[in-house]
Amino acid sequence: MLHYSIAVIPGDGIGPEVMEEGLKVLGAIEESHGGIRFARDVMDWNCSYYLQHGKMMPENGLGILKDYDLILLGAIGAPEVPDHVSVWELILPIRRAFQQYVNLRPVKLLKGLESPLRYKGHADFDFVVVRENTEGEYSNMGGRMHQGTPYEMAVQNNVFTRYGTERILKYAYALAEKRSKKSVTAATKSNGINHSMPFWDEIVKEVSQEYSGIQTNLYHIDALAAYFITRPETFDVVVASNLFGDILTDLGAAIVGGLGLAPSANINPERKYPSMFEPIHGSAPDIAGKGIANPIAQVWSLAMMMDHLDLPELSTVIMNAIENVLQDGKVLTPDLGGTATTKELGDEIVRHIYQTTR
Ligand code: NAD
Ligand code: MN
């Protein structure tokens, strides 16, 4: 029997709503496939916790999480708490403390879905964005000065270390070696950002030397964003800094059906610390409480978790169930053009999991 422990952080808004369906799917996998158990502890660390305690998680929160094999996150953020507080005190510390320096975000058009891009079909969307997840533009260096005067200013430093840049690029190239198109596209802005991006480009060139079978493309971020729309079929592995990767992947989600379908894995490749799995979307205050959020991004993040655990057959079970539901087209949430609730869509995925295993 395989045993794994999971720290579950449902979070805010639609986070707990989609997490409930994710946990249901996890239970279905345990029950239908035997031989595997996931012990789950649910943490109530979110914006309500913050309003009560003045912090997003307990003092020793990271110490508590460290002992788990895996972390599952719903989404964080509420109108009553500034976003820089909720994100900076919960998500970013987890990504950093556990050296989850790889943020994997697939851009794949699932069977049963159509892309909003008129002339593109399934073969055109099957790439993955590797986002640097611990440094870059999301650094805590800088400050605000001269507040209340006409000379007020804000300075934000971007931090690109050689160590951090090399390791994300090496991960991207190693991933490309395992895929069919054998290409890495790196996002840059060396014509506009003076220090960090030329440095990034140089390291791209260095690392690319070590992977002779892989083709390298270096595109400016603005052009690259446009290419996501005009020629998505040319991409295989796209590697980007923290901010560029963040922006590119909301765009990536949009071209394959929307944020409700976009998962992500925050990986510590050395497996020294727990990795974290979450949808890329936020807490969606505009639809929270209505029970209509799409749970697929959360459920897909569980499939990514299975891949991380080297259980590709369980990942396939989950993905097949999702695709079967989409192909049936009967039980869909409003973002997919249907009228089903979050729970109904979750139940339908679970039903398909049992169906394929009986
Ligand atoms: P968002 O992702 O929450 O929502 C953007 C739009 O997509 C909204 O219209 C929303 O209704 C829709 N959407 C998102 N997920 C959906 C789903 N599963 N099903 C159907 N529709 C869905 O982004 P936002 O509005 O910019 O941010 C809201 C809050 O979430 C903020 O507090 C922000 O800081 C936070 N946030 C958190 C995370 C995270 O926890 N990792 C990520 C992004 C934003
Ligand atoms: Mn984002």
Automatic annotation (TrEMBL):
Stretches that traverse the bilayer: none
Known catalytic reactions: (R)-malate + NAD(+) = pyruvate + CO2 + NADH
Keyword Manganese: yes
Record's keyword annotation contains NAD: yes
EC identifiers of the protein: 1.1.1.83
Alphabetical list of NCBIfam families matching this protein: PRK08194.1 (NF006048), TTC (TIGR02089)
Family from the record: Belongs to the isocitrate and isopropylmalate dehydrogenases family.
PANTHER family in the cross-refs: D-MALATE DEHYDROGENASE [DECARBOXYLATING] (PTHR43275)
Protein name: D-malate dehydrogenase (decarboxylating)
Organism: Brevibacillus formosus
Gene: ycsA
